[in-house]
Amino acid sequence: MADPGPLIEPLIPALRRYAYALLRDHTAADDLVQDTLERALLHWSSRRNDGDLRAWLFAILRNLHVSRHRQALRRGTVVGIDEEELPEITAGQDIVLETRDVLAAVDQLPEEQKSLLLLVGVEDFSYEEAAKVLDVPIGTVMSRLSRARRRLRSIVDGDRVTLLRRVK
Amino acid sequence: MSSDNVAPGEDELQAYVDERLDGPQRAAVEAQLARSPELRDRIQAERRHRASLRSQLQDKADEPIPARLRIANIQTARRTRLTRRAGLAAAALAIFVVGVGAGWLANEQRPSIAMSAPTTSIAQGATAAYRTFVVEVAHPVEVGVAQEAHLLQWLSKRLGRKLEAPDLTPFGYRLIGGRLLPGGSGAAAQLMYEDSTGRRLTLYVRAADGTETAFRFQKDGDAATFAWIDQGFGFAVTAMASREELLPIAEAIYKGLTPKG
């Protein structure tokens, strides 16, 4: 099996982005990526050759995240968003407002919808690859994607009304 | 048209949002949007949200890779641990419990109302232990596979029964270690396995009342458990898997329990 470094490293920026989008905390995101990479190296030699490396790494990261997320819920802890990440809100900045709305809105989606939007919409996974990472049939990916985007719209619309009211 | 139902063409609309259509398909969607302002607004909003999400997250992907995430550095950190483990890992797999003689009824169809309390208790104990330790990254096991002989000797002594670890490599699961837990009125042992994507499976054993050998399936969230009791001990195999995926593993473990010859 080839040296993992040159194969894995080009994928690390995307893994960090996915982890950050899931957790909205820079340090926790890098911890998650580090655990993912350690696991990948541990299993490197037993990795199936036919597998897509990127999908495999994202699946590891996502499995780790889902396990911990479940644990966090059971403990009743809440993962907060970084306050400094929020752009200044002033009246008239509609584009900034909406950008902020979308990220915040995605946080309100169930993990399975959130992951799917990130994998497909941000990481440019094909629908087949996303199905592999999420371990669901392709048909589920398509219907879930449609549902996720509908729900996102209703959240963004709701947030927008609230925010505009607050700004005025 | 109900907005909750996926209308015909919804897959194409989603592919359009993702900019994955070309030529005639794309033109067909655009014609459809031109006919319906309501649909057009919806699809435009979905494209806008997608673009916003991408642009907001782009900075993150443009950051340089931190030193601690460089593969060479992670490999260096791992090397010490690996040398210590080398050779021992190969010896990691064996069987599990000896002295199990009674037959088992692979009767997972049995309705839950007929389940006896002891099996339920075993399954619940196993699921709780699974949930507690399977998410652990730093210390998933108390004693790692590097000290397998010590682990099994220690657990056997505390359980009062010879314990060995079944080989689950045909299913992609490798032993990573085990731990001792409180269980019922005495001790329980948990052996933990992991597959190449980091999914974990546990095998849970403790003393249990009853001679029942019925096979119980329990699903708690996405954690699935097969549990059974045999000659004073309860066994449970738990994983995030479907019943269909877990059943052959449970069967293999059970076969591993059956005395050879």
Describe the structure.
Chain B: This is Membrane protein. The complex is a heterodimer of chains A (168) and B (261). With 168 residues, chain A is mainly alpha-helical. Chain A is 72% helix and 0% strand. The N and C termini of chain A lie far apart (61 Å). By secondary structure, chain B is of the alpha+beta class. Chain B contains seven helices and seven strands. The N terminus of chain B is likely disordered. Classes of the chains: A mainly alpha (168), B alpha+beta (261).
List the helices and strands and how they pair.
The complex is a heterodimer of chains A (168) and B (261).
Chain A: H1 4-8, H2 12-23, H3 26-42, H4 53-75, H5 94-107, H6 111-122, H7 127-134, H8 138-167
Chain B: H1 10-17, H2 23-35, H3 37-62, H4 71-85, H5 117-133, E1 143-144, H6 148-159, E2 174-183, E3 186-194, E4 200-207, E5 215-220, E6 223-230, E7 233-239, H7 243-257
Antiparallel strand pairs in B: 1-2, 2-3, 3-4, 4-7, 5-6, 6-7
Helix pairs in contact in B: 1-3, 2-3
Keywords (chain B): Membrane, Transmembrane, Transmembrane helix
Biased composition (Basic and acidic residues) (chain B): 37-46
Region (Disordered) (chain B): 27-58
* DSSP strand tally of chain B: 7
- Low-pLDDT stretches of chain B: 1-8, 87-115
Helicity of chain A, as a percent range: over 70%
Question: Which overall shape of chain B is indicated by the principal axes computed on the Cα atoms?
Answer: elongated
The CATH homologous superfamily of the largest domain in chain A: Winged helix-like DNA-binding domain superfamily/Winged helix DNA-binding domain
